[in-house]
Amino acid sequence: MNQNIPVTVLTGFLGSGKTTLLNRILTENHGQRIAVIENEFGEIGVDQDLVINADEEIFEMNNGCICCTVRGDLIRILGNLVKRRDKFDRILLETTGLADPGPVAQTFFVDEDTRDAFNLDGVITLVDAMHAELHLDDSDEAMSQIAFADVILINKIDLVDSGALEALEQRLRAMNAMARIERVQMADAPMEQVLNVGGFDLDRALELKPSFLEPEYPFEWGGVLRLDGKATIKLENGPDPAMSAVLEPIEAATEEALMGAAERVFTCFSTAAETLQPGGALSPGETLWSMTLSGAEQYDYGIEADQPGLYALFTEHGPDEFNASFFDANGDELSVAAEHVFNPEHTHDDTVSSVALELEGELDSDALNAWLSRLLQTRGPDIFRLKGIVAIAGEDQRFVFQGVHMLFDGQPGDAWGDERRYNRLVFIGRNLDEEELGQGLRGCKAG
Amino acid sequence: MSDDGFDRWDVDAPLTGVAVEQSGQFAAFSGGDGCVRVIDLSSQERRLETWSLTEGAIIALAADCHALGFLCGTDDGIVYQVHAEDGPSELARLDRSSWPDQLVTHASGLRAIADGRQVRLLDAEGQQINSLGTHPSTVAGMCFDDPGRRLAVSHYNGVSLWALEELFSEPKRLEHRGSHLSLGWSRDGRYLVTATQENIPHAWDLVSGRDIDLGQSLSKIKSLGWSADGSWLLASGSDTVSAWQFTDGDLPPAAPRMLGRYSEDLVGQVCAHPILALTAAGYNDGSLDLVSLAPRPKRHCLVDSKGSAVTALAWSPDGTQLLGGCSDGHLFAYRFDSDWLAQIARPTEAS
Predict the structure, then answer these.
(1) CA spacing 20 to 30 A to B139: which of A129, A434, A436, B26?
(2) Is B138 in contact with A72 (Cβ distance < 8 A)?
């Protein structure tokens, strides 16, 4: 068993709630001995055994690695902490608002003493729901904090509306597809969400399931309605003067069926829309309807299904944004039998993004080595994090690896057995070209 | 019988330092349990006198600038002077963001305490003479030159040399990129060597102004020092003792001579004998050797066992006693016959 002491890193801009979360962890903690390494401006409100103020002293390694900066103060502090008889169960490290988490992560890759005694458990990034967009627009550090995160906590969600929250989450998701994103108030994240994250644990890399493998859709919402004949959608004024929609018969009221229908109607959304005025009706088929939503307080549109049954309605925007409700012919409200919020096409063009690659079959070990080392050499400064599971030709075990900028760490994982062999890589970085990365990976295929 | 005997103790805390005070009568072991344990080397009784200084750890230990004294730095930011017979008293208190993990003294009556990016310089009475700094980063290592006229301070991107007679002047900066850790000054004051984060010791020749990287070791160098005659630089961090010979007033070739036994568990501590051409080498598996620096080196194994890493070593000033211990709290004190030691140090006759 690994006896190393876990280190949890808390990052986030000033005012995002780092100290609140820190105090929460300290007060909720039962039986764990926690040492806190605070930044120089930190103010812990809880009476704590050991609080160390760190200066965030960063230096460049003299090893030709152009982006390899390391926190020397952290090496020194951790080195002194292991000298104690009563070592700690956990270390919490709070960075300053403007800190780039890169040097902290790199310290755990580079320094052997730190690696031998400690594990970087995870980078927890707090974002202030109200100001995050602003910070992301004009700060490299904010981008970097998102890119490095294993867990992103969107804090102060009570201060913004659901649309803004959804947009922010989508933006964060597009930047970092590997992180778990949670919405919290007063930094009230359950402890199991922020501790024992295992974000840098290669033994847990098999859990690697980036959530953006879901493609982007030209609609934001799909819901299943059970129709007996005519029905009505009631809508109010929203952020847009019109909303397009498609109605499609569906075989079951499940999310799975909805995803299948989504594929069928995908292309309908790129056809010319038929404009409807209030009182008009949508009917099933390949027609893209555009409901006019301006000039009045409320808008009623009919739904005309020839056959009673299940129908999926896909809408350009979330129905919440127009306070939509559905009614049957008797005027009773219809409930939505199943629904799914789709990943809309991004409007933000952040330079930081995630790319996931999947490739079946086996890779040639030399070719993979050559490709990855060339990639990290040339693109290292732009690659914040990298994780992968690959099948190497001639090897029975999976090979799992991770990287932080130019630093790389890998080990054999579980055996494949009879399983179909595949390769999965996820990059989070700046100016990533998915096509180029995919080509590089395909070039490593064995045989 | 090769040696006169040895004593050992097991305490429930990692050894963080060992030192022998100037008179050579007392030695002290500092622990990760906040205790300093003092032994009277002249007594046959071999009893440890224990003083508890803090709930945390003692993170630095040094012989004080006068006889019978030690200095201890604790991880609650306090520096204690510990009299071998009368016990501890507080000497200085730093604020909580600073840890006094670097302490050095000079027999002329100087004490230097690392305090973040500053160095506090204290006289023998405990009065602060000056505060040196601010250095570019937290002080990682300090060393007085032999006469006690200069203090070298290591930090990011090099070393600062303070001429102590000119207390208010700026230090001379020796620049080299990277994080410089512990450092050692040759007896004649000509060469200064730092251990670095990259495991590559860096050497400066203060006369010629040249500086070079010495060969890269396998792991971080936690211990370096100079041989008694000042010609050999010794370092831990590889699978044998690494040694560079400084002769004829020139910097040595980068590649070290590898002395002593090869071990998968690397050398963690080296400690040169104060008189003879000999060094003690403590390995990360707890084994302990004496290795001569002769042209055809000999070694003698004192401990050959699988245990915890040797974390500190010190010789008594007369070179007849070797003290040290391990990360699991095992402490030891060896007494040697001088003639026997001299035999190990003597070069083997060429056959």
Answers:
(1) B26
(2) yes
* pLDDT tens digits, one per residue of B296-338: 778 888 888 778 999 999 999 999 999 999 999 999 999 999 9
ipTM beyond cut 0.90: yes
Closest CB from A53, A83, A112 relative to B14: A83
Nearest CA distance, B80 vs chain A (angstrom): 18
Instruction: Check CB contact under 8 Å for A76 and B101.
Output: yes
Element (H, E) at A439: helix A434-442
Report for A46-60, A192-206, B218-232: range of highest mean pLDDT: B218-232
A113 contacts in chain B (CB < 8 Å): 220
For tokens 């290669």, name the residue.
A202
A138 phi and psi, to 5 degrees?
-130, 20
**Contact status, residue B192 vs residue B199, Cβ threshold 8 Å:** no
Q: Are A39 and A94 in contact (CB under 8 A)?
A: yes
pLDDT for the residue numbered A292: 93
Between helix A162-175 and helix A140-148 the angle, nearest 10°, is 80
Q: Identify the closest residue of chain A to B97 by CA–CA distance.
A: A53
d(CA B194, CA B181): 6
pLDDT value at position A213?
46
Q: Identify from B115, B197, B236, B311 which residue to disrupt to test chain A contact, counting A C-beta atoms within 10 A and taking the largest count.
A: B197
Q: What is the pLDDT of residue A208?
A: 62
- The answer to whether the Cβ–Cβ distance between B96 and A85 falls below 8 Å is no
Distance set, CA A411 to CA A2, A83, A390, A397 (Å): 15, 29, 11, 10
Q: Which of B156, B177, B200 sits opposite A57 (nearest CB)?
A: B156
